Amino acid sequence: MSLLRRRRGVTAPPPAPTPARPPTERPAQLLRRLEFGVVRRLDGVLFGDYRGLFYGPSLDLAEVREYQPGDEVRRIDWNVTARSGRLHVRQYREERELTAWLVIDTSASMDFGTRRVLKRDLAKEFAGLAALVIARHGDKVGAITFGPRAGFTPPRGGRAQALAVLGLLSRETPGGPETHRSADLAEALTAVERTLRRRSLVFVVSDFLEEASRGPGSWTTALGRLAQRHDVVAVRVSDPAERVLPDVGGLRLRDPETGGELWLDTSDPGVRAAHARLVAQRDGALRRALTSVQVDLLDLGTERDPVGPLLRFTAARRGRRT
């Protein structure tokens, strides 16, 4: 924000009235919409082999074999390699039962959106979709939320659990039978690491804006520890207005996390160029941080439903593993 200066001669207009929000869907309504409008579109594409697309190897060791080009470096068995003098990797059998966790951001920045839905509603859609897919195969899913509305629901199976996850995300106050009051992502990831006793699939759903402002060091270490034992996917939710600053004249902007305000002349090309540089720096820092701990990134935008990005993400994972 220090790069953005007020333009001389421009006076701030009175704040515009806040537009009315569309009524928020109840958990049961959202679940039915996802079942009939979204999940069916994934039939035959994702459900048949969703474990191979989302879920990495289990901890059930099957054999050790020689390294082949394309094998993951983190699978190398250094003890066998040292004894034999040749690179060997560990090969695992899939666990019969999958446990998945949704770690979801409920901070104030998630209440923003200028397109189809707010970011928090997009996170809710993804959480409901993931819970339905996993529960449909008889596996378990749990959820931990961090931020002002921190909460927890233990992993269970079935459609009722998908409804419970959506219910947790719909609360305006902290809730859950065993609330984890995690203020930020680093604390939430540490809480998840302490909770998990067996290898799991973990989705971290956030806009990562607060983490970007603090720098990757505050949460990358916790994410790296989690990724060493579990299959972790970062799901970033964003809005087009956060990526490209529109030329709409004077704007009064308010930081939802701190309450600070800034008057901005978006018609100034220098202001828009500075914003573009900041967005590129923030995006590059996030991608480097995730790559350093071998965590894949799924990008979702409020301007479209999550099906298209989800299918492209799983296709890319399938191609890389093949």
Topology:
Layout lengths: L26 H16 L7 H5 L5 E7 L11 H7 L3 E6 L5 E7 L13 H18 L3 E7 L4 E6 L2 H12 L14 H11 L5 E6 L2 H6 L2 H13 L1 E8 L1 H4 L6 E5 L6 E5 L3 H24 L3 E6 L5 H15 L1
Helix pairs in contact: 1-4, 1-5, 4-5, 6-8
Can you describe this structure in just a few lines?
This protein has 322 residues and is of the alpha/beta class. Helices cover 41% and strands 20% of the residues.
CATH fourth-tier homologous superfamily of the largest domain: von Willebrand factor, type A domain
Biggest pleated-sheet summary: 6 strands, mixed
How many domain modules?
2
Name the poorly predicted regions: 1-21, 56-61, 175-181
Anisotropy-based shape: globular
Gyration radius, rounded: 21 Å
Distance between the termini: 44 Å
CATH topology of the largest domain: Rossmann fold
Give the assembly state of these chains: single chain
Would you tell me the overall average pLDDT?
A: 78
**SS elements, strand count:** 10
Strand content bin: 15-25%
Helix content: 40-55%
Order of helices and strands: HHEHEEHEEHHEHHEHEEHEH
**Strand order in the largest sheet:** 5-4-3-6-7-10
Report the CATH C-level class of the largest domain: Alpha Beta
Q: Using the 3D structure, state the CATH architecture of the largest domain.
A: 3-Layer(aba) Sandwich
Total number of helices: 11
- Structural class of the secondary structure composition? alpha/beta
